[in-house]
Design goal:
By secondary structure, the chain is an alpha/beta fold. It is built from twelve helices and ten strands.
């Protein structure tokens, strides 16, 4: 039986429950291959399964993690004991989700810009994902900052794609996580990032509303407003927190239950600090949470290093990062806690 809208709303609320956030474990094959290459581990199906099992079976995962975004391969995999990953998560009070876009492709008419694929056949795929246990979905669009970029055409095209995806997702009884990511690549200032992120989010919410998306049954996964990777002037954590809050106040309707920030190219410590600073400032109608991939996983991957002997130490590393991000949700994280 399909969920009714109020159930979508309660799932969205549960995903941004106090002190909890989302683990993004939905890396595509090329991405996880790159990450495994750094620790000299071949990206075989069994290695990918074993690594995801390290994360998913971490004792006490449900204390700090509300949901896990899985990849098409991962949602079908099982623990060593033969329990499907989605079922295992549910048994630990964690909501399983699924990345449903099929990645980005270059736009031939707009050099340096990309649109996201995957709308074709999406409704049918969602029926299967629901049967496999998924209760929420994620779709990512990317925007590059450069001379005259992003173009109006791409801002519009990606907003349309995100809105179409959100409609299809809600019709299937699944909570859509809408992810418009303004990339950190480049030497742009934090002011430029704020201007572009405002433009992008304004257009995204205009399309979501135009298409009749139930805003109280979705979550937003945006970038933080931050200077470009190669910008000579780096913004402080306070400036990043203030600029991000300013931007979401201007663009995000209050009916959206929560904002689950992505970590982009930040280090785990930076992502946690910036989230904590935002929650310290507070005074917003949304839950300000996290949906981190690398910022939760980097220390885990290094500790695991492809060996089952490192399981306990790797799970401890994951638990520590999850706990620190939980503290950041209350504005209570400080960098000194990294050494505890």
């Amino acid at each position: 039986m399909k969920e009714t809208q109020p159930d979508i709303r309660s799932t969205a609320g549960a995903l941004v429950a106090s002190g909890k956030g989302i683990l993004a474990a939905d890396e595509s094959f090329p991405t996880i291959e790159k990450r495994f290459a750094k620790i000299n581990v071949p990206s075989t199906e069994e290695n990918r399964r074993a690594y995801r099992e390290v994360l998913i079976t971490t004792p006490g995962i449900g204390e700090y993690i509300s949901g896990v975004i899985l990849f098409d391969e991962t949602v079908r995999q099982k623990t060593k004991a033969g329990v499907p990953f989605p079922d295992f998560l549910v048994s630990r009070g964690v909501i399983p989700g699924i990345k449903v876009d099929k990645g980005t492709q270059d736009e031939p008419d707009s050099p340096g810009e990309k649109t996201t694929q995957g709308l074709e056949g999406l409704a049918e795929r969602l029926v299967e994902y629901r049967d496999l246990g998924a209760r929420f979905t994620k779709w990512r669009a990317v925007y590059s900052i450069g001379q005259n970029l992003p173009s109006d055409k791409i801002v519009q095209a990606n907003a349309n794609g995100l809105a179409d995806y959100a409609v299809i997702s809600q019709k299937a009884g699944l909570v859509p996580i809408v992810e418009p990511e303004v990339l950190m690549d480049g030497d742009h200032t934090i002011q430029k990032c704020e201007e572009v992120t405002t433009r992008v989010l304004t257009q995204v919410f205009s399309k979501l509303q135009e298409n009749g998306v139930d805003l109280s049954g979705m979550l937003l996964k945006p970038n933080m407003v931050i200077s470009g990777k190669d910008c000579p002037t780096k913004a402080t954590s306070q400036e990043i927190a203030e600029a991000t809050i300013r931007t979401i106040k201007k663009t995000v309707p209050t009916s959206v239950p929560g904002i689950v920030f992505l970590s982009g190219g930040q280090t785990p410590e930076q992502a946690t600090l910036y989230l904590s600073q935002m929650n310290k400032i507070g005074g917003v109608p949304w839950q300000l949470s996290f949906s981190f991939g690398r910022a939760l996983q980097e220390p885990v991957l290094k500790t695991w290093n492809g060996s089952s002997e490192n399981l306990e130490a790797a799970q401890k590393a994951f638990n520590k990062r999850a706990r620190l991000n939980s503290l950041a949700r209350y504005g209570k994280y400080s960098p000194e806690m990294e050494n505890e």
